[in-house]
Every structure is written in structure tokens, then in C-alpha cells.
Amino acid sequence: MSVLKLENVEYSYDNGKTKVLENINYEFEKGKVYAVVGKSGAGKTTLLSLLSGLTVPTKGKILFEQKDVSKIDRYRYRSRFVGVVFQSYNLLPHLTAMENVVLSMDVSGKKIGNKKAKAMELLHKVDLSDDLAKRRILKLSGGEQQRVAIARALSYDADIILADEPTGNLDISTQDEIINIFKKLAEKENKCVIIVSHSPEVAKNVDEIYKLAPYKNEGKIS
């Protein structure tokens, strides 16, 4: 059964004059890694914004566990059920890796016992040592920061992980390591992982690929 489902989703702005997405129908399941690919302007970032609940469709529905996202508490949806990993990491540089993860737990409002112990567990899960976990973000490499960002997205046990160009700033070797982390999350922890990426290498390593074409080409799924 799908955890996220798009039903005839459209999105436009400028009072409907500029259409970005039209008639998008797709389902995302737990236990799989998906890639959303397409040329610049195809609507990948818009789709990610819709899936995360930051934006609502102009037409159509996005269903989370059979419930219309536009009709539920979207703050609760974003802070508890969806974890987002950004290309630019979006970590607080003056905090340590562990403190960034703990802060995410605080923001979620979810009851979590020993937050520091849980944060360390998550950082170990993404292959960061105790020493690295205690370092400030600016003392970490790009690959290490991305691992922290993934741990943060997992901090409140979200069912869905949305990743926006998560390997765009990384070398090939580190890119492979990050993709393997996403695959383990899907396979071993039954997460639904959705990656927006321009990288053909990323697309090769996922379970399903969702191709978006610019609206002028009708934006159909292929």
C-alpha cells in the first residue's frame, strides 16, 4: 500500500498563467528508494515542495496514508512524518553534529527519551564516529555534513525521507556511500526515500525512477 499518492496533481502560479505540473499520478511505497529526474524547469523542486507539504496543489490531491495532505495539520505532517535532506545541508554551523540532531527532535515535539543517546545512535547509523558527532559542523567535510543531515531527517522517525540533490556537492566515492545509506534505510527500516537528482549515477541505484518532462511536453510520467 502506498504511503504517498498523487492524484491528478497540477501546480501553477501567476493566477494559473504559468503551469509547472499537470496530471501527475504516482504512488510511493515504504521500503523503496525513488528518484525524481528531469531537466531544469521540469518541476522537480516544485514536486518536492508539494510532497513535503510546503505547497499545496492547484488541482488534484496528495494523499498521505489515504488522507489529503491539504486537509491535515501540515506543520505536524512536516515535523513528524516527513524528513527533508537538503543539498546545502541546512545545518546550524555553531552547533555540533549531535546538537543539530537533538535540536530537530526538540522542534518535532515528539516524545523521545534520552535525546543525546538517540542522536548518537542515529549518527552511528550513518557512519559517523563519536569524535565526529561531537565536532562543530564547520569542522566536518561535505560528506560528513550530509550524513548529519540524514541523521537529522531520521531524528523523529519519519516514514518518508525527501532528499533534494543530496549528492550534488559530493565526489563520486562519497556519493556512493550516501546512496547506500538511503538504500539501507529503505530496505532495513522500511522508509520511503524519494530523491530529486540530476545525477544518472543516482538514478541507476534506485528501485524506481520518476521522470518529469517540462510542461510544454505535457509533463507526463514515462
Query: What does the overall shape look like?
Result: globular
The fold-level CATH name is Rossmann fold
Order of helices and strands: EEEHEEHEHHHHEHEHE
Strand content: 15-25%
Number of domains: 1
Distance between the termini: 21 Å
Largest sheet: 5 strands, parallel
- Quickly count the helices: 8
Write down the Rg.
17 Å
Helix content: 25-40%
Based on secondary structure, the structural category is alpha/beta
Per CATH, the architecture is 3-Layer(aba) Sandwich
Give the strand line-up of the largest sheet: 6-7-8-3-9
Features:
disordered C terminus; four-stranded antiparallel beta sheet; 8 helices; 222 residues; Rossmann fold; alpha/beta; five-stranded parallel beta sheet
Provide a descriptive summary of the structure in words.
This protein has helices spanning about 45-50, 75-80, 95-110, 115-125, 130-135, 140-155, 170-190, 200-205; strands at about 1-15, 20-30, 35, 60-65, 65-70, 80-85, 160-165, 190-195, 210. It has one domain: Rossmann fold (3-Layer(aba) Sandwich), CATH 3.40.50. With about 220 residues, the protein is of the alpha/beta class. The relative contact order is 0.20.
